[in-house]
Amino acid sequence: MTEWLLVYKGYDPEEESLREALCTVGNGVFATRGAAPEARAGDTHYPGTYRIGLYDRQETTIEDKTVANESLVNLPNWLDFAFRVEDGDWFSVDDADLLEYEQRFDIREGILSRHIRFRAGDRTTSVTQRRFVSMADSHVAALETTFKAEDWSGTLEVRSGLDGGVRNEGVERYRQLETRHLDCLETGTVDDNSVFLLVRTLQSHVRIAEAARNRVYRGGEAVEVDRELVQEADYVAHRFTVALDEGEELTVEKVVTLFTSMDRAISECSRAAREHLQESPRFSDLLRRHVLAWSQNWRHAEIRVGEQENTDLAVNLYLCHTLQTVSENTADHDVGIPARGIHGEAYRGHVFWDELFVFPVLDYHFPELTRSLLKYRYRRLGAARRAAREAGYQGAMYPWQSGSNGQEESQTWHLNPRSGRWVRDETQLQRHINVAIPYSIWKHYQVTNDLEFMAFYGAEMILEIARFWASKAEYDRALDRYQIRRIIGPDEFHTRYPDADEPGLNNNAYTNIMAVWTLMRALELTDLLPGRRRELLWEKLEIRRLELEHWEDISRKMFVPLHGDGIISQFEGYEKLEELDWDAYREKYGNIQRLDRILEAEDDDINRYKASKQADVLMLFYLLSAEQIGDILHRLRYPFDRDTIPRNIDYYLKRTSHGSTLSGVVHAWVLARANRERSWRFFKRSLESDISDIQGGTTPEGIHLGAMAGTVDLLQRCYSGLEARGSVLRLEPCLPSDVQKLHFNLQYRSNWLEVDVTPEKVSVHAQPGSASPIDVDVEGQRRTISPGTRVDFQLNDAA
Ligand code: BGC
Residue 22 burial by CB count (10 A; 0-12/13-18/19+): exposed, middle or buried? Predict the structure, then answer.
């Protein structure tokens, strides 16, 4: 296994769904799971294809409750490709007599291949398949299959089609909900070689057209075959038989186009799919362009870590999946970052706060992409304003889970697979999504210096969100403090006080402090925006001086719960909860990541205990420097001593089950300076999270994009100490002992940089160009770097 190849030897039905997720091929617009082309959806195989941002809403009645869910739709299966030798059984990987089986995902080139040798009767056949979803042309995918008759002469029959009879059945616990989202409108042929299929989503009425061309080649020469059209209500295919001589090779190229009515610059999607198919060249030409597009991606974003092969493999894989979910192709679309990629149906393709973990990676490589993804939020400002108004607040309140139109998409009930019970889902009270959004906007500005974006989009969102926080904060005269009540923090285990009738907790420290941070940024905009723009925006939003004074007041008097010796309480009253007997639970259940489900199944309630699913208070140390936290706490007139940071880390680390993959990333980060060894262990575990499916069954339902990108970011920003603050790019490395070298490319304020970090020095090389020089600070040594120059900084504690 090299650092660019994910190789699976042998076929393992148990592992197939995980491989499918990890071998998904995609281009930032649509993606297809690494399913066997001959397989239909069932317990072992699940050939899903998803187009980012394409949702459909359906209602289901369960146990007298009607639930509505908006889901990322599983689109017609373009992979569909079956074959058989003579008139034997159609090949099935589950039933075949396999002599060899290997699957490879070439991460560098975004190509999934499969090599099979099997026997049917006394005939040995080898089959090699390669597929990709084109990074160069976001409407194209292709599958090439080469057969070799090793020891026989005879006929081979192929059926290659488009299957519109698919449903959303990828996540077992959602199967009780409505799974049908598509209505097939039309099937037919484009020309002698090609078929097409047009479907429409049932509620959102998005039309999706796929067209597929199958051509056959023997020794590089095109072969004419007699095709039979198979046309059913929601399925269309060509079926043909070809003769093969012993030792001969035959290749079938399937080229597919996919358009939807959401696409731009088209007249109608079915016509676009057919026309584009006819213009599309052969597999090899498409492949060449696809590989070039990937090589360009890597030149933007590759990150190399010393000599650690396994580290590099997982890092490359995670970056690859990040870019298969959102790439430069995505930049033209009105979509957000789905937490589970476009690799499966978990969380229904919804957009959460996980973007907070993805944006920092994209900002430094594809700033135009971040800009576009942030505009997804801007376009939903109206929905956020409506949500705030309806809940009795001002400004804009973004939803915890977002889909097509920006309304709240969180489910209100969920199934605990352990107990089989439907339990209330109160996680939508996570208002901290409204600090994640301003934080990402602000960071984007720091990295790019893009005042235009800030002035026209970012500022309006920050101001409206600040308004929301100001109306959400309640003033307590007796305390002379503001409080934020009835919400929940990132730790989803705690949703209410034990035995309380109402959900919600008071004064989640992370939310309160970050709300103050947001208000401070909103106030800063007064000086940041160009005068006229500020005037216009203030006028449009009717911002008055009194309102700004109110924000200022809150930003100085927000309540922050503390207990013990400098411990920031996760929320008010946290210290009164019971301690959990962690050892007993570990012993009894082994994996206790989802303690909430375990306790519910025991008729107990996780709310009673000091037990967190993921980092909550510690998120503060992830997002803000010790200096920034100190500034805010001093502003709020609370004591703060840097020495309390390790104590806080230790306190919560002991009480966290890491039931979210995001948790490991945050812990690796906050431990990086205090305990490098431990941090590196968390990093390694995060690196394992999807590749080894450490949650035991969640990765097959979709990758964890926040954890993937967040893990890459640990190398890019955490261990290198990279930070864009003010107008200075800072690097303050803290390399773990296993890392002898870090290399990455960056874009910073229109400069294209190459950065090398070793334990001894940091080198920054700015590519030639016309960008303005930048200030770089490494451990207090500040230099101005102009395009075309390179500067080496010796590190202070270099051996
Ligand atoms: C985590 C959330 C996260 C969501 C989507 C949940 O399990 O607790 O923090 O946003 O998954 O990834």
Answer: buried
Q: Which residues are catalytically annotated? A: 492
CA angle 772, 773, 776 (to 5 degrees): 140
pLDDT-derived band at 332, boundaries 50, 70, 90: confident
Residue 390: which H helix or E strand, with range? helix 381-390
Q: Whose CA is nearest to atom 12 of ligand 1?
A: 339
Beta strands in 10-134 (DSSP E): 25-26, 30-32, 49-51, 55-62, 65-72, 81-85, 97-106, 111-120, 123-133
Overall average pLDDT of the 71-99 stretch: 97
Q: How far apart are the CA of 96 and the centre of ligand 1, in A?
A: 40
Per-residue exposure over 199-237, b if at least 16 CB sit within 10 Å of its own CB, e if not: bbbbebebbbbbbbbbbbbeeeeeeebebeeeeeebbbb
Cβ(510) to ligand 1 under 6 A? no
Tell which residue, 409, 382, 407, has the closest CA to residue 396.
382
Q: Is the CB of 83 under 6 A from ligand 1?
A: no
Centre of ligand 1 to C-alpha 64, Å, is 28
Per-residue pLDDT, 799: 43
Q: Note every long-range contact of 175-178, with CB atoms under 8 Å and residues 24 or more positions apart, other chains counting.
A: 176/60, 176/62, 176/415, 177/58, 177/60, 177/62, 177/67, 177/69, 178/58, 178/59, 178/60, 178/69
The C-alpha atoms of residue 203 and residue 345 are separated, in whole angstroms, by 18
Q: Tell me if the pTM is above 0.85.
A: yes
Distance CA 306, CA 242 (A): 51
Other beta carbons within 10 angstroms of residue 288's beta carbon come to 13
